[in-house]
Amino acid sequence: FFFFETMKLSVFTLCISSAAAFMASQPVGRNSIALQAERSQALPFLNRPALLDGSMAGDVGFDPLGLSGIDDVGVDLYWLREAEIKHCRVAMLAVAGILQ
Q1: Rounded distance, CA 68 to CA 46, Å?
Q2: Which among 68, 65, 67 is positioned nearest to 43, based on CA atoms?
């Protein structure tokens, strides 16, 4: 008889503890900190790069590697855009050539 009462108590305890996992937790007070940097539309967890200000077509601030800010190489953002378009066109021609 003692075994069954202990079993009932342990099952009841498990049910209550598992039901408590689905209850809403108490709200935690958060301090909001104002950020001076504007966030990227493409990657909201990163800051928007300085040169990607939305002036070019399709510019939503996607530059996770920081290639828009390389000044040591001596190329500007417009050259990088033209090079990307050229490489994309060559890649599309290569795929069309492979599939023939």
Answers
A1: 14
A2: 65
Q: What's the pTM?
A: 0.48
> How many CB atoms sit inside 10 A of residue 41's CB?
13
Rg (C-alpha) for the chain, rounded Å, is: 29
CA distance 17 to 9: 12
Q: Report the amino acid identity of residue 77.
A: L
Give me 13's structure tokens.
């305890």
| Closest to 38 (Cα-Cα) out of 28, 53, 23 | 53
Q: Which residues contact 77 (CB under 8 A, 6 or more apart)?
A: 51, 52, 56, 68
Which pLDDT tens digit goes with each residue over 13-36? 777 666 656 666 665 555 555 555
Distance of alpha carbon 46 from alpha carbon 36, whole angstroms? 13
Percent of the chain, pLDDT > 90? 15
